[in-house]
Please model this.
Amino acid sequence: LNSENLYITSFIEQNLGLPAGILDEFSIPDNLAHRIISSVRGDEQEEVENPTVERMLNFFMRDIGAYAMSEYGFFAFKERWPNGADYAVALTHDVDNIDRPLSHILKIRKRFRFYDIILHILHLRSLYRNLDYTAKVESKYGLKSTFFVMASNYDLKEIAKDVGKLKELGWEFALHGGEGTHESKEKMMKEIDTFASKLGFRPIGVREHFLKFDFEKTWKILEDCHLSYDSSIGTRDKLGFRIGLCTPFHPPDSSWNMMRITEVPLVLMDTTLWGYMKRNEDEGMNDFMRLKDAVHSVNGLFTILWHTESLRMKGGRIYPKILENLKRDNSYINNVSTILNFWERRNMAKLKIERRKLRLEGAFIGLTLRLETLDKKISGIKGGYIEENDGYRRVFPTSEVLEVSFE
Ligand SMILES: [Zn+2]
Model:
């Protein structure tokens, strides 16, 4: 029971970016603790379109804020995304195929533009080998993404050149785990070795093909294989938040120790819209907007999976419209490993609040603090600067140690 409590405390501290130790002075509401437990153990949430666990966490934050205000006269926490963005987006692609026989293409020809099929037949364009094309679309918006490529479905040597070039430019390549890897360490190891020998580097993350996942086995297998993250927990046949969460978290092992590996919950998969729910493009765009608003409202991470092979297909071809829409917001958009790098450094940075002082150790450019004060006056700041906003202040560190003192 004790390690379960410790796990929940750390989970909340990381999720909300709280000052160290503040939860010791607090009792965590039972219903919140139970929901976190059921979530990380894999119970599918009832209101799946609603990130309910995130909502409960944000709600709990108000209680903590009220407590800190009365105790210290101010409250501060580490904001979730670089420079205080309203929400973050992880762009990802599963590369299930890099080629299909012409007979298959002709069978599903209605999904493509006639013009594209002609170019494909003339070998002037490949409808399936879309790494370059995807990157080109993203470049137009100044964006980068993560490609999950398969070690078991095609020869990675065939795309090694493209991979090398795009990796150099800031795209990430991770493993799209094949048949059985979610329940077998041997199979996972073998695929990682194949990936490494064909591409020349080891993947740091995984997404399982068909989002296959076993809550009792998969995290352990990935951690034993020295992977840093997974992004397989999502819904396939409906829209929403499989376990009510949309921020990265460290899952527990079977005795409630916090694991090293990070889970990045998947929020939207393109094939859910077109394949499972038979949406047309306008409806799909509306579904995307609804999910985006839900993530935005909890300051979460919107992890999007868009299959590379759908980019030139009916439905999938709205991808540029989606990027354009995301860019219009105050959002932070990047590939998974860059976002997790920020997230981990944020976890490591230590925020301490005392009666007349706050101190942030391990601060770095991009990490910001939200600071709320009543009538308490700031008497000094070292290692950073403060921006005044309506109703709150944002603190930007400029060195590794930041200190704000109050009168
Ligand atoms: Zn797949």
Notes: The first strand starts at residue 74 and ends at 78.
